[in-house]
Amino acid sequence: MKTAAALLFLAAAAPAGADQLARVIESVKPSIVGIGSFQKTRSPALIFVGTGFVVGDGLTVLTAAHVVQKTLDIENRETLGILVGQGDTAQFRSGVVTAVDKEHDLAQLRVVGAALPALQLGDSAKVQEGQAMAFTGFPLGVILGLHHVTHRATVSAITPVIMPPQSAQKLDAKLLKPLQKPVYSVFQLDGTAYPGSSGSPLYDPDTGLVYGVINMVYVKGLKEAAISAPSGITYAIPGNFIRELLPRR
User: Fold this and answer.
1) Is the pLDDT of residue 223 over 50?
2) To 5 degrees, how large is the angle CA 105–CA 133–CA 208?
3) Phi and psi dihedrals of 83, rounded to 5?
4) Are the C-beta atoms of 121 and 243 separated by less than 8 Å?
5) Which of 248, 103, 124 minimizes the C-alpha distance to 178?
6) What is the mean pLDDT of residues 143-155?
7) Which residues form a coiled coil (predicted)?
8) If you average pLDDT over residues 190-202, what whole number do you get?
């Protein structure tokens, strides 16, 4: 009888967790935007480069620094900005980069227009290995259309910011140095990110609090393998570095 009761409890509890994540996804989606550039005379006029999310007063957007590192063609009126909405109804809103933290691969944009719903930041110092997370963004961008995609993930490790070698034999002095005295640590996730996911918020699936920013996926072999044969290992920058970036306006 106890076993039957336990099974009934588990059966009842599982959908509740799924329902909660579904509600959180719906609440965070309006705050998650595409990052791209627009140039009227270009074909296509709009080029998608990554994902970002809204914080603070609703006009501040966070993303990965490598997403906005391309030099704009100012002479031909190329403009950086965000895409709000989804699918064919997505609209471009111009913005400017107001702060960049290259060390932690973070960038801040200010956008024009009406304020958007903002996500709240959690304390990433409290994140533990084994903690459940989710991230939402636009993998593969306009190839699949501007539609939000969410992945579940577990914090597999909190590890020094270093690219893992293919084997222990490939560890050399250059790779060992950050391990001996790491500059900072990142979240290693078992969720699969794809090109376009960079800049997505990593958040608690129960509360929607943001604890990190998707930075990169570990790629085996050529970069194209990130699409055809993803490793299933993704890294995220801890969100407390965002707090240090935000006041820089």
Assistant:
1) no
2) 90
3) -110, 125
4) yes
5) 103
6) 85
7) none
8) 87
Tokens encoding 243: 């707090």
Q: Which residues contact 95 (CB under 8 A, 6 or more apart)?
A: 61, 80, 81, 82, 109, 110, 111, 112
pTM of the model: 0.80
Q: Where are the domains of the chain?
A: 124-245
d(CA 59, CA 81): 12
Q: Which residues contact 53 (CB under 8 A, 6 or more apart)?
A: 28, 31, 32, 33, 61, 62, 63, 119, 199, 200, 201, 210
Query: What tokens were used for 150?
Result: 């969410």
